[in-house]
Amino acid sequence: MNNYRRTKTTVSLINYHFVFCPRYRRKIFINNNLDIRFKELTHEIAKENNFDIISMETDKDHVHLFISTLPSFSPADVMAKIKGKTSKIIREEFLDLKHLPSLWTRSYFVSTAGNVSSETIKQYVENQRKR
């Protein structure tokens, strides 16, 4: 779960927990086919962008997504890619949602999570001169 990601120039551990909802808090995930399709699409988008999905689950009217990204992606970038593509494809494939201008609200919740607590990092930084 907390694997460091490596590129030519960086080593990072950036995990985001997102929660986001359909417009008007519609209970779209009651539809099992839509739920499955959303998860398939999200996995495809993650693969295309080199995101690692740590965990993902839907409830009737919202999504929880725990994802690891590279430092080149901001939370807004991640949401734009996932919401943008899933909205377009799901509205094309599920005709009862076709009339919506967008599947998702513009808002979302995001928090960061690594493998150590903020308090641990604070103590580490504060103790640098004492070494």
Q: What characteristic shape results from the CA principal axes?
A: elongated
Kindly report the spatial arrangement of strands forming the biggest sheet.
4-5-3-6
**What helical percentage do the residues reach?**
25-40%
Tell me the number of strands.
6
Q: What's the mean pLDDT score? A: 90
CATH fold-level label: Alpha-Beta Plaits
Indicate the radius of gyration in whole angstroms. 17 Å
CATH homologous superfamily heading:
Transposase IS200-like
Number of domains: 1
Main β-sheet: number of strands, strand sense, barrel status? 4 strands, antiparallel
Our count of helices gives 3
CATH class: Alpha Beta
Q: Give the amount of beta strand, in percent.
A: 15-25%
CATH architecture: 2-Layer Sandwich
Query: What is the straight-line distance between the termini?
Result: 30 Å
Task: Identify low-pLDDT runs.
Answer: none
The class by helix and strand makeup works out as alpha+beta
Q: What is the string of SSEs from the N terminus onward?
A: EEEHEEHEH
Explain what the structure shows.
Helix content is 35%, strand content 24%. By secondary structure, it is of the alpha+beta class. The strands form two sheets. It has a four-stranded antiparallel beta sheet, covered by helices on one side. It has a two-stranded antiparallel ribbon with strand order 1-2. α1 (32-49) packs across α2. The longest helix is centred in the middle third of the chain and has 19 residues, at 75-93. It is elongated, with a radius of gyration of 17 Å.
Features:
single chain; 131 residues; alpha+beta; Alpha-Beta Plaits; four-stranded antiparallel beta sheet; two-stranded antiparallel ribbon; 3 helices; 6 strands; 24% strand; elongated
